[in-house]
Design a protein that fits this description.
By secondary structure, the protein is an alpha/beta fold. It is 39% helix and 17% strand. It has three domains: 181 residues, Thiamin diphosphate (ThDP)-binding fold, Pyr/PP domains (Rossmann fold, 3-Layer(aba) Sandwich), CATH 3.40.50; 164 residues, Rossmann fold, CATH 3.40.50; 191 residues, Rossmann fold, CATH 3.40.50. The radius of gyration is 24 Å and the shape is globular. The N and C termini lie far apart (72 Å). The relative contact order is 0.10.
Length: 562
C-alpha cells in the first residue's frame, strides 16, 4: 500500500517516523512545501528562530540533553544554508547528533549562477559526518533515514541534507515509513573478556590508579557504571574538560576536571598516577594539550573507546580496548570482584580525599567578595544559589572558561559547553534547546556581554514559545580573553577589545522577557532567585570588574617571552 505525497510531505513523514518532537528553523521560500507539511504535523513543534546559526545551537543543545537527534531547518538555500556552517562545525567538534536540513535551488538551475546559488554539497562536507543532496522525490525517506542513522551512530555527529526545490514539489507514491528499530542497531559492543582480565590485573596491582571519565561516560549517562568501578578500585575519578558533570559532584571519589584548564587536585592525580584508565576519552587537546606536562609519561595507560581510531592516537597505550565505555566499566567491576587479592591504593585515595576537601574549602575562602564584582566572588554566589538539578550552559571566553570547573555539577548531564570548538555566542541558544528537551529543569546560561550581544535576537524566540531559561550575562565590557593577551603579551596595546552594550536587563524587558540587574555581588543571589521564579525568559545583567582578566593560553605566547 502506498500513499501519494510531495517531497516536502515525505520529508515531514520521515521526521515523524523518527518521533521528532521539535524542529528549530527559519522559514524560506525554497522549502515552502516542507513548511506547509509541518503545518499539519501536530506532533512536531516548530520553533521559529531568528538566525540559522543559533537555530543549529538550539538543535545541538536539544540533542545533547535528550540523547536524540536535534533537527534544524534552513528554509532558504544560499545565505540561509551558509548560516548553518558555524553551528554544524560546533556540533561536529562536540560529536552532537544534529540533523540539518536546507533548501536548495532546483536541479535544473545548478551551475548557471542562479539566484542564491552556492555549492551546498561541497560547503557542508568538511563540517559534517556526511552530507547528501537528494536527487529525486522518491528517495527523500531513504536519505532521511540514512541521515538520522549516521548522526546517531557512534561517534555521533551532525549531518546535512540538501533538498532541491524541484524534489520538494514533485510527487511520488511512498510505502509506509520505516521505524528506527527496523534499520538501526539496538546494542553496543562490550570488551573482549581477555582484555578485561588484563585491564583488571593492571588496575588491581596499581598503587596510584586514576580513572579519567570523558564524553563516552557523560553522553551515555554511564556515571553509575563508572562510579561503581571507582568504588571497586577505591581510586579517584577525574573528568575531562567540559565533562565535569560526567560524575555527580557529591561523589566522594570525584576529583573534578583535570588538565590545563582543570583544578589542581585532579590535574595532579593524572600527573602522578601509575595506571590511568581513560574511560571514553580521547585524551585530546583540552585534556592534555597533547603534552606529557599534563599526564604522567611513566604511567601505564588503558584506553577504552568506542571509536577505534581514537585509541592511542595522542599517547601510546599499554592496552587499548574497543568497547562502549559504561559496558566495559561494568565488565571491569565484575572482573575485579573475582580477584581475591588486590591493592586498594588506600593511602593514595585517602590523601586525595583530604586534598580535595581542602581545595573546595579554600576555593570558598579565596573568593573575593568586595566591589567591583570579581569572577571568584561571582562563582561562589552561583554555587550558593543555583539549584542542584539545574542544567548549565557555557560560552567560550575567559569568564566562562574560569567558570567551567568553578561550579558544582550535582546531576550528570547538566553541563553544556562549546568543547573543542571554543565558540563564542553558543550558550544562550544552546540553553533554549536544552530547555525544550527538558522543560521541567531549570536552565541557566552563562555568557559574556560580547557573546550575548551576538545572539540577543533569540530573546523573542524564547518569549514567543515560552522557553523560560535564565541567562546570566557576565558583563565586563570587553572581549576578555583577547584583552588579557593584549595586556600580558602586547604591552597593553588594546585594539578591538572593548565592547559597548545596552543595559541587557532593559533590553530583555523590551523583548517581553524579564530583566534583572546585579551591580554589586550582593545583588547576584536575589536576582538569580527572582529570575528562576519569574515564569518568563529572564536575563540577569551582572557587572563584573573589567580589569579581572586572565590569560588561559600562556603557552601560545611563549615566543613573546611571557
Amino acid at each position: 500500500m502506498t500513499t501519494p505525497m510531495s517531497g516536502g510531505q515525505a520529508a515531514v513523514a520521515a521526521l515523524q517516523a523518527e518521533e521528532t518532537s521539535h524542529v528549530f528553523g527559519l522559514i524560506g521560500s525554497a522549502t515552502m512545501e516542507l513548511f506547509d507539511a509541518l503545518y499539519d504535523a501536530n506532533d512536531i513543534k516548530m520553533i521559529g528562530v531568528h538566525d540559522e546559526r543559533t537555530g543549529t545551537h538550539m538543535a545541538d543543545g536539544f540533542a545533547r540533553a535528550s540523547g536524540k537527534a536535534g533537527v534544524v531547518l534552513a528554509g532558504q538555500n544560499g545565505p540561509g544554508a551558509t548560516n548553518l556552517v558555524t553551528g554544524l562545525s560546533q556540533a561536529k567538534a562536540a560529536f552532537s547528533p544534529v540533523v540539518s536540513i536546507a533548501g536548495m535551488l532546483a536541479q535544473g538551475h545548478i551551475y548557471r549562477d542562479a539566484f542564491q546559488e552556492v555549492d551546498q554539497q561541497s560547503l557542508f562536507t568538511p563540517v559534517t559526518k556526511k552530507t547528501w543532496t537528494v536527487p529525486s522525490c522518491d528517495r527523500v525517506p531513504e536519505l532521511m533515514r540514512e541521515a538520522f542513522r549516521t548522526a546517531l551512530t557512534p561517534r555521533r555527529g551532525p549531518v546535512q541534507i540538501n533538498l532541491p526545490r524541484d524534489v520538494l514539489s514533485a510527487q511520488a507514491d511512498f510505502p509506509a515509513m520505516q521505524r528506527p528499530q527496523h534499520y538501526r542497531a539496538q546494542t553496543v559492543p562490550g570488551a573482549h573478556p581477555d582484555a578485561i582480565q588484563q585491564a583488571a590485573q593492571m588496575l588491581a596491582s596499581a598503587v596510584q590508579p586514576v580513572i579519567i571519565a570523558g564524553g563516552g561516560i557523560k553522553n551515555t549517562k554511564g556515571h553509575e557504571q563508572a562510579t561503581a568501578l571507582a568504588e571497586a578500585l577505591n581510586c579517584p575519578i577525574v573528568t575531562s574538560p567540559g565533562h565535569g558533570d560526567a560524575i555527580p559532584f557529591g561523589h566522594p571519589l570525584n576529583a573534578g576536571q583535570m588538565g590545563p584548564r582543570g583544578n589542581a587536585v585532579a590535574s595532579r592525580l593524572v600527573k602522578e598516577a601509575d595506571v590511568i584508565l581513560a574511560l571514553g576519552t580521547r585524551l585530546g587537546f583540552n585534556s592534555t594539550f597533547y603534552s606529557y606536562d599534563n599526564i604522567n609519561k611513566d604511567a601505564q595507560i588503558i584506553q577504552v573507546e568506542l571509536e577505534p581510531t581514537a585509541i592511542g592516537r595522542f599517547f601510546p597505550v599499554d592496552l587499548g580496548i574497543w568497547a562502549d565505555a559504561p559496558t566495559a566499566a561494568h565488565q571491569l567491576t565484575e572482573a575485579l570482584a573475582r580477584l581475591a587479592d588486590r591493592a586498594l591504593a588506600r593511602s593514595w585515595t585517602d590523601g586525595f580525599k583530604a586534598e580535595r576537601q581542602a581545595f573546595l574549602a579554600q576555593r570558598d575562602a579565596d573568593a573575593i567578595l568586595t566591589h567591583p564584582t570579581q569572577p571568584s566572588g561571582l562563582f561562589k554566589a552561583l554555587r550558593d544559589v543555583l539549584p542542584q538539578d539545574a542544567a548549565i550552559t557555557m560560552d567560550a571566553g575567559t569568564l566562562c572558561l574560569q567558570a567551567t570547573d568553578a561550579l558544582n555539577y550535582w546531576t550528570p548531564g547538566s553541563l553544556f559547553t562549546p568543547l573543542d570548538f571554543g565558540l563564542v555566542g553558543f550558550s544562550y541558544a544552546c540553553g533554549l534547546g536544552v530547555k525544550c528537551a527538558q522543560p521541567e529543569r531549570p536552565v541557566v546560561s552563562l555568557m559574556g556581554d560580547g557573546g550575548f550581544g551576538m545572539t540577543v535576537s533569540e530573546l523573542s524566540t524564547a518569549v514567543d514559545h515560552g522557553i523560560n531559561t535564565v541567562t546570566v550575562v557576565m558583563n565586563n565590557k570587553c572581549w576578555g580573553a583577547e584583552k588579557a593577551y593584549q595586556r600580558d603579551f602586547f604591552n597593553g596595546r588594546y585594539i578591538g577589545a572593548d565592547v559597548s552594550s545596552p543595559p541587557f536587563d532593559k533590553l530583555a524587558e523590551l523583548y517581553g522577557a524579564a530583566g534583572f540587574r546585579a551591580d554589586r555581588l550582593s545583588d547576584v543571589g536575589p536576582a538569580i532567585e527572582a529570575a528562576l521564579s519569574c515564569g518568563k525568559p529572564a536575563v540577569v545583567d551582572v557587572a563584573v570588574d573589567p580589569n579581572a582578566l586572565y590569560s588561559f593560553r600562556r603557552d601560545s605566547f611563549k615566543h613573546r617571552g611571557g
